Amino acid sequence: MGYFAAGVEDLQQVLNIGQLPDVGTLKVARIGVDVETPDLPEEHWVSFRQQVWEVHAERYQKEPKRYGKDVQWKLALPISDVDTARELLEAWRTRFLEAVEGVDVLVGPLLDGAAPALEAVRAEYKRDEFIVGGRLLRHTPQYNELGWPALAVPTAEGAVQVAARPGNEAAVLAVGRQLGLPSEEVVAC
């Protein structure tokens, strides 16, 4: 589940988080600088498609036109060996957790490169391609797979993603605020 918010305070209220921790008490690691994490295997899409099919199959079969062309195409893809995909994901999860042992909060890229122009995304959609979309979906799925809360933060150097283990949402917000996530006062100005 995701939330859009005007500032950190809104997220604190929605998530029922009181005081944020002092970032100085947290071990914050930057992916690719302080810690190296394994790439999520491509097989995660097999598991993801299986989950999506379980949720949408009945409705899609009755009313396929209610889905966009991109989703229709993805739902029509064959779902290969789910058991093997799950085994690979479990091995990846073990390696990832070993790599970040002792780290409270991770900071890494939100997407590869600059944010695409809306026109580029629309043109790709019309051509039934997934070039820009693939670039946009390289980093976030790893946190989805882990079940970790993650937060997109715009910074002067480009958008980053802040993530932590479940239950550490307050730490994610604290680091996000330090990196430049606006407060309600800034947004209201």
Instruction: Give the tally of β-strands.
Output: 4
Rg, Cα atoms, Å: 18 Å
Q: Average pLDDT, to the nearest integer?
A: 86
Biggest sheet, in brief? 4 strands, mixed
Structural class: alpha+beta
Q: Strand fraction band?
A: 5-15%
- Identify low-pLDDT runs: 185-189
What order do the SSEs take from the amino end to the carboxyl end, as H and E? Answer: HEHHHEHHHEEHH
How many helices? The count is 9
Q: What best-fitting shape do the alpha-carbon axes yield?
A: globular
Q: Strand order, biggest sheet?
A: 1-2-4-3
**How many angstroms separate the termini?**
29 Å
Helix content: 40-55%
Number of domains: 2
Please name the defining characteristics of this protein.
189 residues, alpha+beta, 2 domains, four-stranded mixed beta sheet, 48% helix
Please provide a written account of the structure.
With 189 residues, the protein is an alpha+beta fold. It has two domains: 1-37 and 102-189, no CATH class; 41-99, no CATH class. 48% of the residues lie in helices and 8% in strands. It has a four-stranded mixed β-sheet with strand order 1-2-4-3, covered by helices on one side. Helix 2 (44-62) packs across helix 4 (82-99). The longest helix is centred in the first third of the chain and has 19 residues, at 44-62. It is globular. It starts with 7 loop residues before the first helix and ends with a helix. The model is unreliable at 185-189 (pLDDT under 50).
